[in-house]
Write a structure and sequence with these properties.
Length: about 375
Amino acid sequence: MPERRPGFLSRSEMPRPIAATIDLAALAHNLGVARAHAPHAKVFAVIKANAYGHGLMRAAQALRTADGFAVVEFDAALRLREAGFTQRILLLEGFFDAREAAEGAAKKIASVVHHREQIGLLGGLSAAARLDLLLKINSGMNRLGFAAEDARSAHAALQDCAGAGKVTLMTHFANADDARGVAWQMETFERAAAGIAAPRSLANSAATLRYPETHFDWVRPGIMLYGSSPFAEVSAAALGLKPAMTLRSAIIGVCDLKPGDTVGYGGMFCADRPMRIGVVACGYADGYPRHALNGTPVRVGDAMTGTVGRVSMDKLCVDISGLPAAGIGTPVVLWGEGNPVDDVAQAAGTVSYELLCALAARVPVTGRS
Ligand SMILES: *Cc1c(COP(=O)(O)O)cnc(C)c1O
């Protein structure tokens, strides 16, 4: 594939200037931040959903010193194993049928077990399989997991499965990133886990960063590895995290506005003074949020400015009135280095997770070491 160079429109080949760059050193650095917070725990690097849009294999390679990888997709688990990764590989939603359980066992894929039917799937495995399992307890998220009062009997049922190997107790937090915190769920988890001698895995990124009492044996950071803060009120930079994905494009058109002129579909923005508008080759078909409001932060050249008007499929507009040097070809950072994805997400009324995961397939992605 020809290398795309965002911001530089060559004459021989004029690719659409949009591209995402993945900073591999930033991924490794952010894993180091997780380790520094939980020095006594092992780390499952959560790389589900194509590593939150960063590319499964690329991220796994950059995060290869992790003690384990956690994914949701069975084919992702197999690809990691086939690529030669030898650490624990965990399926966060477990196996979906007997075929997956058998193939997973053969490839030493570890599995979450969150309901009785999954214990049934394990019953068909041979004693040679010895599958690592994470018994998931519902401590208040009310999504997946056994009720606290069923934890003991589920644990006992797993002990009776010929194919079951090491069992780790697990739960997931609903409010580790906000004021409600984790204490209320910890109480339920402790009640469920009382008397069960097993390692534990509780913490997502927010709990890894904020609640040492949740670390135990395995932490499960996701979003922080990609350089985004799980907390609304604390920036990624303040946590020492570096952005892993930078989405770049360039200005491909310039438009002068008179007072009263509107911009884009629906005329959602109306100029109240003479303005200069840059048209950027990036729209919702690239994964940029259509619901981003006027003023969503965009870096143009070395300056910060904001969006104007509605984001369209292939384009969005930015105010370059105060940037006389900006024009066609000026590089733009939609999010990433110099324009935190968390700020863009907040302006768009969403979270960085959604923006990163939604990076569209048509955007070329390259790793940079
Ligand atoms: C996605 C996920 C994580 C990672 O959460 P972050 O908020 O991205 O750190 C951890 N555990 C489970 C069960 C998950 O589904």
